[in-house]
Amino acid sequence: MKHDTTPNRYVPGEAVLGPEAQKRIDRRGRAMGPAYRLSYARPVHFVRGEGVWLYDVDGEAYLDFYNNVASLGHCHPRVVDAMTRQAATLCTNTRYLHDAIIEYAELLTGLVPIPRGQAIFTCSGSEANDLACRIARHATGGDGFIVTEYAYHGTSHLVAGLSPNLGPSVPLHPNVRTVPAPAAARTAGDVGEMFKQHVTAAAEDLLRHGIRPAALLVDSLFSSDGIYADPPGFLSGAVDAIRDAGGLFIADEVQPGFARTGDAMWGFERHGVIPDIATLGKPMGNGYPMAGLVAHADVVDGFGETSRYFNTFAGNSVAAANGLAVLDVLQDEGLMANAKSVGGYLKDCLRSLGARRLGEVRGAGLFLGVEVVADRDAGTPDRAAARHLVNGLRDRKILISSTGKHDNVLKIRPPLIATEEHVDRFMDAFVELLDEKAEPAHES
Fold first, then answer.
1. Are 399 and 64 spatial neighbours (Cβ–Cβ below 8 Å)?
2. Alpha helices in 115-190 (DSSP H)
3. Does domain 78-332 have CATH number 3.40.50.720?
4. Which residues is 178 bridged to in the sheet?
5. What is the pLDDT along the chain (444 residues), one digit of tens a residue?
6. Which one of 51, 238, 331, 362 has the fewest CB atoms closer than 10 angstroms to its CB?
7. Which helix (H) or strand (E) holds 77?
8. In what order do the strands lie in the sheet with 53-56?
9. How far apart are CA 39 and CA 22, in angstroms?
10. Between 191-208 and 236-244, two packed helices, what is the crossing angle to 10 degrees?
């Protein structure tokens, strides 16, 4: 069997594990099968979380610089209190009137700058993207979709077929066209103009094959492609191009959304564009399974009138209480400003290490990517070094991951409550690892 060698994945037999850990992994495999993956060469058994920390079965604390679902920090007391109080009172679905979900929808549509926006709730980002694509098909009469060449948009049959990141064993649908991610450092000339040209060409190819474009669907930070945030504004030409071709623009905010970029609530706002549909998820409930979309009324009205939508758990009263608490905490604790200031400090610290076989440092706010390269001038990806860094940090009780086509971009996403002191702890361990990696080169 071919092993999965992604840097942040456990591969059976590659690492020596203690008997209890191995026993637990074996039980998991028997009960849950091979489709699941465990993070890190030596998986971690967590039993508790608080703030920026996760605690393992032995009580050891790990600094979590990766899990952006709990973006307010693990087990934020205000969110936990809202959830438990509502769960102890009532948990029911959206077929009954309940003030909390109405209030949440009103607040959310006020925060997402889509004119006459309407909210529809789901339980996961995959469901939100699936529903957005169904709405786009209905609104445009088209069936063609354009995504970036290593995008990930979810696990349903529809959006898995729009997710090249899942690999060749999950083929793309025949009505899908891919375009290169807008990598500024690899693009000669204007990155926005180049991205627009790629989208235009993809739309023309769809039409040439008798497929009417339905939508351009992109993660506004291009998280799975390797994290491309700059320059601000580069998305605008591509949005014009898809609309000129008769399609919609769907902004996948499942990872970039809810203030993570530091300078805006949503990733698309950095580009001065307004999507037809914005999909939301991950941090929406700070750990509670909550997701959804906001769409222009003109886009969603016809779909709602002809295609009945109901999701048993989506938008239930406990989810609404969680969502309201998350929005309150984001505002009351000034977490967008914190993401900008602490994220800027982290980016400056990382860029100061430029001489150490690292490439570009990209991203915005507290969502950063660091290229690990064998040759800085050529930008040659170094997957093995990325693996060393991801797993070396895990052994130093700090969690990050990796992303990008070559799995050589370190993916760093601290909770929005992270401080400069947390950054300093991360940097101390990171520099130690870089020096350790560099030692053999000095000896030779």
1. yes
2. 125-140, 157-160
3. no
4. 147
5. 344 445 577 777 677 778 888 888 888 888 988 888 888 888 899 999 999 999 999 999 999 999 999 999 999 999 999 999 999 999 999 999 999 999 999 999 999 999 999 999 999 999 999 999 999 999 999 999 999 999 999 999 999 999 999 999 999 999 999 999 998 656 567 999 999 999 999 999 999 999 999 999 999 999 999 999 999 999 999 999 999 999 999 999 999 999 999 999 999 999 999 999 999 999 999 999 999 999 999 999 889 888 888 899 999 999 999 999 999 999 999 999 999 999 999 999 999 987 668 999 999 999 999 999 988 777 788 999 999 999 999 999 999 999 999 999 999 999 999 999 999 999 999 999 988 855 433 332
6. 331
7. helix 77-87
8. 46-50, 53-56, 61-64, 398-399
9. 14
10. 20
Q: Which helix (H) or strand (E) holds 398?
A: strand 398-399
CA-closest candidate to residue 129, choices 251, 245, 241? 251
Listed by start position, the domains of the chain span 19-72+334-443, 78-332
Q: Which CATH superfamily is domain 19-72+334-443 in?
A: Aspartate Aminotransferase, domain 1 (3.90.1150.10)
Which tokens in the block code for residue 311? 């999701």
Could you tell me which of 291, 211, 197 has the C-alpha nearest to residue 247?
211
Report the SS3 class of residue 257. Answer: coil
